[in-house]
């Protein structure tokens, strides 16, 4: 399989280098290998496998439930319709995939893909625990363990796609965007929800304070402090909205727009093939 357009990896390498804060220890916090070239994928896979048991609970508490609103916004921007064949990449415990299933209905098809086996097991268990009255109105979701940088799908397979808090965690963002472009049908959209690497000093300061003083301490109470210390440096290394738009277009997307939401702390990239 090959992406339609080969992105300029050198541009992303430059952006990564610019985001290294003078090699400070604080910038490198997180699990060993999470920011080491060639080790990122395995280290991050282990990270998400470890946090899987409390992932949903922490998301609810740390976002005060707002993550559900942001995810529904992403679904709407994806353009998914009843009867569509859709995919949620880096699906985690399945939140976006379940909303997609509601959206496309029993005549549609939903696939959830993630590289962490523990997350997929959690998603499958959640689906089995849904009331029968709800399950009968939705398609059976297909859960697949796989790599967003090398998707196991044919070209032009999907009518819409979503990715929630996943693009920031892949080792090669241009490659993942290229794969997304390849598997979408002409005219289809993808909505990519993630933390916003804001260019506003005020927003950046608020985000940094919240992560350091609320998110990490709460995660530490679950024995996951090191895993959640990964968030801040991963956000600072993540392309900002303008850069994401450029990368999406270089990957072959006809149109790309980045929306800042959640007091500009979150962002959604919407790209059309």
UniProtKB/TrEMBL annotation:
* Chloroplast among keywords: yes
The reaction(s) this protein catalyses: demethylphylloquinol + S-adenosyl-L-methionine = phylloquinol + S-adenosyl-L-homocysteine + H(+)
Q: What is its main location?
A: plastid
CDD domains, A to Z: AdoMet_MTases
**Keyword line:** Chloroplast, Methyltransferase, Plastid, S-adenosyl-L-methionine, Transferase
Question: What domain of life?
Answer: Eukaryota
Give the EC number(s) listed in the UniProt record. Answer: 2.1.1.329
The subcellular location is:
Plastid, Chloroplast
Query: Known Pfam families for this protein?
Result: Ubie_methyltran (PF01209)
Q: What role is this protein assigned?
A: Involved in the biosynthesis of phylloquinone (vitamin K1). Methyltransferase required for the conversion of 2-phytyl-1,4-beta-naphthoquinol to phylloquinol.
Q: Which family does it belong to?
A: Belongs to the class I-like SAM-binding methyltransferase superfamily. MenG/UbiE family.
Name recorded for this polypeptide: 2-phytyl-1,4-beta-naphthoquinone methyltransferase, chloroplastic
This chain's source organism reads Coccomyxa subellipsoidea
